[in-house]
Amino acid sequence: MKLLPNQDTTLSGTDSSVDVATEENMDRLAKIGEGLLKKPVARVKQGTSLSPLIENVGTNEDALIRFAKLLSDERKLRESKSPKLQKAQSSTMISPA
After folding, report:
1. Cα(59)–Cα(65) distance, integer angstroms
2. Section 66-81 average pLDDT
3. 42 touches 60 (CB < 8 A)
4. Does position 86 have pLDDT exceeding 70, yes or no?
């Protein structure tokens, strides 16, 4: 599984701190996060701190949507193979009248 690490090296002051929970700072952090979603996917090269763009992958938002779908599909697959879950689901189903 590939993770989607994302770093914004332009943050400074209270924007770079998760310890400042004022409403103003939280609003700024939300806007920063929304901006990061719109940026193209990049991965940090270990040892260099460089973040080359990855072509034909889309934005961070696109990558997160694909990742969420992958997790959802994996959960459904595991649930379909789990006898314990199948038994629990069948016993809670209501039959039509």
Report:
1. 10
2. 94
3. no
4. no
